[in-house]
Write a structure and sequence with these properties.
The structure holds 2 protein chains of 2 kinds. By secondary structure, chain A is of the alpha+beta class. Chain A has 2 domains: 5-56 and 132-184, 2-Layer Sandwich (Alpha-Beta Plaits), CATH 3.30.70; 60-125, no CATH class. Chain A contains 5 helices and 4 strands; from the N terminus they run βαβαααβαβ. Chain A has helices at residues 18-31, 47-50, 58-84, 99-125, 164-171; strands spanning 5-15, 36-39, 149-154, 175-184. Chain A has a 4-stranded antiparallel sheet with strand order 2-3-1-4. In chain A, α3 packs antiparallel against α4. Chain A starts with a strand and ends with a strand. The mean pLDDT of chain A is 92. Chain B has one domain. Helix content of chain B is 71%, strand content 0%. In chain B, α3 (93-100) packs antiparallel against α9. The longest helix of chain B is centred in the N-terminal third of the chain and has 34 residues, at 50-83. The chains are: A alpha+beta, B mainly alpha. Chains A and B meet through α4 of A and α12 of B.
Amino acid sequence: MSTTRKRVYGYLAEFKSASALYKAAEKIRDAGFKKWDCYSPYPIHGLDGAMGMKRSILPWFVFFGGMTGCATAFALAYTTQVVIYPTIVQAKPANIFTIPAFFPIMFELTILFSGFTVLFGLLALIQLPRLNHPLFASRQFHRATDDGFFIAIEARDSKFSPNQTKELLAEIGGANIELVEEEDS
Amino acid sequence: MAHHHVTSADIAINGDHLDNSKVAKAKNIAMAIAVLGTVFSFYLLFFASNATKGSYAYSWLFAFYFFLTLSIGGCFWTLLHNVSNSGWGTSVRRTFENLGSTYPWMFLFGLPLLCPQVQQYLYEWMNIHRGAHGGDVKEHLHHVDHLLYNKHWFMNLPFWYGRVIFWGVGLSCVIIFLRKLSIAQDTDANPGTKRLFQARFHSTYTLIIFALTITFTGFDFMMALDYKWFSTMWGVYLFAGSALNSMAVIILVCAWLKSQGHLKNVTGPEHFHIMGKLLFAFTTFWAYIAFSQYFLIWYAGITEETSYFLIRNTGNWNIGMIALVFGHFVVPFVILLQAWLKRNPKTLSIMAVYTLCMHALDHYLITIPERGVSLGGTHMSQGDAFAGLGPIQVAISGAFLGDILAFITIGAAFLFFLLRAIGQHSLYPNRDPRILESANLSN
């Protein structure tokens, strides 16, 4: 006796090649779906355009991350070497004109902070790491990391309808169309 | 992908040719300016007063080397395209080759620099060498200048002339050969991959000739202005400016051809995006190298090295140097971060023109500040040619008119030879095996 209720995640359909996936993605994009995704064993050039994806906001995070790194390094070097303990080397000035000596560390921290914002910003935007994904309930989906090309349209998309979405997927060449359910907890 | 997939039906079978009558007027005007300017320049270099001859020698060197870097960069992008087995650039490769093909002509403008009458104002080390008057140069140097005595193995007149001739002939042969190979494919009834592989093979070792040329023309013409000064970053620094600004010229040529209805189907926003990225990358690379050079010299504080920046941070030159930091790096860096801007030929062209202006400022500050300190204070004992040159000064007033004249003269010639090369053959390699790959580029 099982007491768990099931909730519909969406439809999963398999496509026979990368180019079939690409063409199907264009059609789903044109049908106006928003909450759906493509799954492929390897990156497909131009698929983001075929899916109609908007530009990521990530570059802005990285830009400000880098600026923060640059400012941090300057503040660190200036405070320690000019304000707290003026360090005079070869009669060079210990004031704002010492700045060439700070450049390497300013450069490095800019890169470091940019790198961190790329990594952590990306993880946050794609919601990783996570323990489970509803699609893992599908047996055939395991092939997405081997030789399977899939498209999943989620039930929470406003255009989703149990019959029409299934027909659409069949019409654009999807095979093994499967209704994926997730366990409601 | 919104755009149509390009197939061989979209490629002009006999090539895409520029209507030469459309540019005939511009070419004629450019040639007239170049011829008149060159004649007048020869008068200024060889027959004018000492003060004019001296200051104009620097003007000529500045303009000559500025345009030479653009041509050398054209050779660089051609070689890099071939050797990296690149597919994206095939549809714009002919523009690389056309720009590179101006190199032999631009090098000819360096001929006055082979004449002792001009050299005496530019290269002090040559004057000291010639002071031996036919005797044993090494013995002479041993008595007058120990530094030049030690540098004699590299800095001696026969070797200098030999090197300069090699820089002129070597890279010219390379670019002429590669362009011929590329053009022969355009009319081949059975175009195969033979020339593609040939170009790739021959671009490997000739890349070394390119590297030696950009480095050592920089040493022999520019660094030698002050024989006591040296910088290990010098070759890379000139290369950074050269690659950056030849890409700016390539962008301008492609944008212009595109606006005239050429390069249809084979180039699009994707190509401009990549060229814009290269412009951005080399802006950053230039800044990295320029700062490294400054930083190493500033940190070490060695007398022989600091002279370069001492001269250029004195008086109004300092304004130029600070303008370079912001104008050549900070401003274009922030602006070129925009992706949409790089995909639009118009906005990218504006940035390319801006970059070229900054390159002119960069090269002005490389060559011209040396003039006032080198020419001034030279005394009569060095010969009649130095009479009436005045004292050491930061800048020689009025001499900038000569800089403008030389720049316009050699610039007009550069424009003429570039337009001539563009009009000679198909504007893209229409029978290249990779033309479709390049036309359908997505990045």
